[in-house]
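Sequence in, structure out. First:
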Amino acid sequence: MTRIFTLIFLAFILLVGISFSVLNSQVVHLNYYFGSWDLPLSLALMLTLGTGAILGLLGSVGVIIRLKREISKLKKGMKHVERRLTHTRSATKES
């Protein structure tokens, strides 16, 4: 069932993207540090969006790695506490 919803969602996104490209097909002149480029407005916007998304992901990599390390440490600590608790319970039952 979720596959159907995923396919419908992807088809909707594709349809929106195609209509966006058709509605924004004007050519714009893009000047940047090393030259210039003539390209459709929709492509310029998509490249800008993609570049921003990639830079955002790269900026958050450090935080993600730190949080994964913290999760790993907490899981190890939890296993240690569970072992001690099991040992304590078994010692209490023997008494």
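Second:
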Amino acid sequence: MGGIEKFNKAFLKALSELKGDVLSDVTGISLYDTTVDERYFPEASYYAGAGKRISAILKSLRWAANADIIILGHVNLALVGSAIKALYPKKKIWLTAHGIDVWERQTGLKKQVLHIADRILAVSDFTKTKMAQANRLEKTKISIFHNCIDPFFEYPDNFEKPKYLQERYKVDQHKVLYTLTRLNSGEKYKGYDKVIEALPILRKDFPGIKYIIGGKGDEQELARVKQLIGENGVEENVILAGFIPDEEVTDHYKLADAFVMPSKGEGFGIVFIEAAASGANVIAGNKDGSTDALANGELGTLVDPEDVNALAIAIRRNLIQHNHSGDIQQKTKELFAYKRFAERLRENIITA
């Protein structure tokens, strides 16, 4: 599950908890879901419109008539937002803005919805700045609204490497690097290719180092990654683990001596705060929203994602100093726990 989906689940849960407090009613509509997880949002108040998009859009227009605030979960819903504003000019339109979807100059309905939105919730300061500059938006209507740790995330109370994963990957005597992401041919900004290029340098100090890349991949991108592995002669060092089940995600963070994803196109990066919440050493890029996720370096190491040598130096330092830390976990909780996320939403609703 990607970061935007995780954000929306937490957002819906926080909204539902405001019913009876500062909101008299809350309803939700999705163009992509077939069901709703009632831990996050009540089924009776949710329309899962996958395969019924026209119906979902028409229902949005009808339900908007009785709403004071309409919140769009993505700029791709610009058609819905623009139609609602045309039908009901006094309704307040909010938009959540994530990453590369809004960093560039928008056109058509997407441009229109950015300008008619009464409030934009940007997941990072980086996204706020890029979006405002590219689309000539008043920064005063953009609020920074960071992602959070999932409300049902299980924070580990010990940081021992899971034996079953050491056995599965045969890494009981090796230093382990780990990245969790989709391997998508349309998203070549995650930085795992730079980590692969850094492995020949790192092998000088850590001969048996292993790099585990977790996450589904499309055929084209997997072929590119395998070619890159071969070109760098690191076939023995890289493990393409594929899909990681939810129940194993935290254990994989604990297995790693360093979680590394030197991205240059991340709107925020929930995986960084999940890794830090698991006490892991985290290395991220310093040219995107990853800086917000790592609290400008307070929760991990920020490095130039284009500089393979700088990346290798940062990884080497983290491996030498490796120590899963309860302090890092506690700082992450303080900054990005779901409770703080829900409180921020309440504050935004009150000031609407």
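Remark: The first strand starts at residue 28 and ends at 30.
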